[in-house]
């Protein structure tokens, strides 16, 4: 417990230093608030945003898109990845394709997504979906194909049929890769989300930032950047990392970092 | 437990490097009676693991037949339990769940299969480890789990592929003694593959010496049971039998 507390403090230390420097130097050099805001006005903007509900509204919109896009992607990606991983021929045939789409930036889908879905929820969720879908499918496929043959043979000789092989061996065996895929995929999705929201909607954190620029409200821009970063850290530390600890680290399938 | 019959078994495969067909197993015939402990011993590349993989149904044979309880082998099945050199435990399952896996596949209810698993874990003195994950155990303990996982499914034949080759020498001797004790208690039909002559003679009722894919000779081991290394290390009969097998395997 003490160890976790101290590591959390150590994690926060550079940010605290940065905040202090910000609070001291921006007023000291009398920086134009149209170029960079004072810390106090950012805090003020945050309080106002919470009080009038606009900040919460933007956060909700962004998180909903991420949640829907990610869940849809996982529902399709994991079974597809397993099915592909079972057959060496199918997997080697499709691997280049999935690698290509994995590295293709999510934001590159925006023009075509807006043509298909129009501006708003559909197009942005589609971008999220793509960012998660290709990486998770590729990682699942990789995970299934790296399960040692002995382990599959062991299950077969203990009487596992096709369905049991899938649920008892292939899925849990691929889980380390699936979790890695989700973490990287969500990272890309989050970045893609902000970019997409600047272009294709009228609500969400990316939109909030982009509109603030038109009014020279640098305090809203910086507030948005902070919220985007903090939300991602919370998501990663409080949701994704604990899943990893509870499963694959416990099973000794990855080295403890 | 049922008997195992192998008739004129052979395995030929195409070697892409040599560009020719290679015969790994030549015309091997073998009868293993119910409750018998047979060791197949030979140097690396003699075809012993290929034979075991064919019996397990992991790879197809190209000639002859394999019958378990009179029925031909087609692919892997729960009538033939396998213990692997690499343990092949399920890392995502606790020790208890690993051992209960076979009964689970047979549709045995949770309470019942956990009772079975606990029974077998006690047999290998693993009761304490039931709730732990394989990665938390030493190699020797992992292989104890591997052995009882196969046994808990009550196979007709237990196939063991150099199961103790990757644990340290002291642990190996303990595991060998434990295996003979468990075998005496449960009397499974066992085919045990090894390159270690002393191990083969220590464990078996009968040793099959194999070389270049052919059976050289079968040697009956008439040493009394229970067997322990303390009593057999200086035993004249043990030394004589080991010497004979060693000579066979080396001269071939």
TrEMBL record, chain A:
Pfam families xrefs: BPD_transp_1 (PF00528)
Start and end residues of each ABC transmembrane type-1 domain: 59-239
CDD domains in UniProt: TM_PBP2
Domain of life: Bacteria
Keyword Membrane: yes
GO cellular component, one term: plasma membrane
SUPFAM superfamilies recorded: MetI-like
Transmembrane segments: 7-29, 63-85, 97-117, 123-142, 188-210, 216-235
Topology in the lipid bilayer: Multi-pass membrane protein
Primary site of residence: membrane
One Gene Ontology term from the biological process aspect of the record: transmembrane transport
Name of the protein: Taurine ABC transporter permease
Keywords: Cell membrane, Membrane, Transmembrane, Transmembrane helix, Transport
UniProtKB/TrEMBL annotation, chain B:
Record's keyword annotation contains 4Fe-4S: no
CDD domains cross-referenced by the UniProt entry: ABC_NrtD_SsuB_transporters
Cross-referenced InterPro entries: AAA+_ATPase, ABC_transporter-like_ATP-bd, ABC_transporter-like_CS, ABC_transporter_ATP-bind, P-loop_NTPase
Pfam families in UniProt: ABC_tran
Molecular function terms, GO-annotated: ATP binding; ATP hydrolysis activity
SMART domains: AAA
UniProt KW keywords: ATP-binding, Nucleotide-binding, Transport
UniProt KW Transport keyword: yes
PROSITE patterns: ABC_TRANSPORTER_1, ABC_TRANSPORTER_2
Its job: Involved in beta-(1-->2)glucan export. Transmembrane domains (TMD) form a pore in the inner membrane and the ATP-binding domain (NBD) is responsible for energy generation.
Family to which the UniProt record says this protein belongs: Belongs to the ABC transporter superfamily.
Family annotation (PANTHER family): ALIPHATIC SULFONATES IMPORT ATP-BINDING PROTEIN SSUB, TAURINE IMPORT ATP-BINDING PROTEIN-RELATED
Designated name of the protein: ABC transporter ATP-binding protein
Organism of origin: Bradyrhizobium retamae
